[in-house]
């Protein structure tokens, strides 16, 4: 029997989650997915993938076992008030993707007794390549169900509550950080002679290859770097020039700045 999933908030992330859950046989055989948004015209295309599209949060929640809250933090109070008449702590598991909103804050709105877990996926869920960090809670059975859901969308890692904001920066914001690197590498490729689409293909596939090397070997990045840096070679010359101009430092500072921004919001 399929598990009913209600994704409340069909924005970029909510849409990515829905696409991933409809994209593979494994996921589509396990889950019936409903995505809600006020303006359903913006997500109507999801119906082509067998996803139910609705503007009715109450109906979506009433039928669901797993509720994924994917709205902006400023909308959570209104959303909970709207769905509260049909919320049932025995029926519903609530997974929240909202940055800077703790499970305790959500519990104050829902009332006690609910199984609430924070999750932080990224938009690569749309192609089942997400990195999702899941908050460790006492709700072990619910946690297993949430892990099972997000495992169909990529890789998962269960972490302590105090690391959820850090996971937002490294995993969710990280998509943009790595894309900016690929964009810069593509521009460099154009400078040395490639057409734009060729440079982007080479940069993107090379980034994928680099990531896959680490994921498959579990080696430290420097170990793999050493394999392609020869004495007086072009690789070490390029790496050193990038470091002289602050590549690693800029990335570290960017991650820390994003984290500090979330901490201020909290």
C-alpha Rg (nearest Å): 21 Å
> Which strand order spans the largest sheet, edge to edge or round the barrel?
3-2-1-4-5-6-7-8
- Here the CATH topology of the largest domain equals Rossmann fold
Tell me the β content.
15-25%
Using DSSP, what is the number of strands?
A: 8
Task: Give the helix tally.
Answer: 11
If you average the pLDDT, what whole number results? 96
Low-confidence stretches: none
N- to C-terminal distance = 40 Å
In the CATH hierarchy, the architecture of the largest domain is 3-Layer(aba) Sandwich
Structural class: alpha/beta
Number of structural domains: 2
Helical proportion? 40-55%
- Overall CATH class of the largest domain: Alpha Beta
CATH superfamily of the largest domain: NAD(P)-binding Rossmann-like Domain
Shape: elongated
Q: What can be said about the biggest beta sheet? A: 8 strands, mixed
What is the N-to-C succession of helices and strands?
EHHEEHEHEHEEHEHHHHH
Structure description:
Helix 5 (103-110) links the parallel strand 5 and strand 6 (115-120). The protein has helices at residues 12-23, 25-30, 57-63, 76-83, 103-110, 140-151, 164-191, 196-217, 221-226, 234-244, 247-265; strands at 3-8, 31-36, 52-54, 66-69, 93-96, 115-120, 130-135, 154-159. 31% of the residues are buried. It has 2 domains: 3-159, NAD(P)-binding Rossmann-like Domain (Rossmann fold); 168-265, ProC C-terminal domain-like (ProC C-terminal domain-like fold), CATH 1.10.3730.10. The chain has 266 residues and is α/β, with parallel strands linked by helices.
């Amino acid at each position: 029997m399929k598990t009913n999933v209600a994704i409340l908030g069909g924005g970029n992330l909510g849409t990515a989650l829905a696409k991933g859950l409809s994209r593979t046989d494994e996921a589509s055989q396990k889950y019936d997915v409903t995505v809600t948004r006020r303006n359903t015209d913006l997500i109507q295309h999801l119906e082509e993938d067998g996803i139910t599209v609705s503007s009715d949060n109450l109906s979506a929640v009433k039928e669901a076992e797993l509720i994924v809250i994917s709205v902006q933090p400023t909308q959570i109070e209104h959303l909970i008030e709207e769905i509260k008449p049909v919320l049932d702590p025995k029926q519903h598991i609530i997974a929240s993707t909202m940055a800077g909103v703790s499970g305790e804050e959500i519990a104050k709105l829902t009332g006690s007794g609910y199984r609430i877990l924070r999750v932080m996926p990224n938009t690569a869920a749309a192609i089942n390549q997400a990195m999702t960090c899941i908050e460790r809670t006492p709700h072990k059975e619910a946690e297993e169900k949430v892990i099972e859901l997000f495992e169909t969308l990529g890789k998962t890692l269960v972490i302590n509550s105090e690391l959820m904001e850090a996971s937002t920066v490294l995993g969710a914001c990280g998509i943009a950080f790595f894309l900016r690197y690929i964009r810069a590498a593509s521009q460099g490729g154009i400078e040395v002679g490639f057409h734009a689409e060729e440079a982007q293909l080479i940069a993107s596939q090379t980034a994928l290859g680099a990531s896959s090397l680490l994921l498959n070997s579990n080696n430290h990045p420097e170990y793999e770097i050493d394999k392609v840096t020869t004495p007086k070679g072009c690789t070490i010359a390029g790496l050193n020039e990038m470091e002289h101009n602050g590549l690693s430092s800029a990335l570290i500072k960017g991650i820390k700045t994003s984290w500090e921004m979330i901490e201020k919001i909290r």
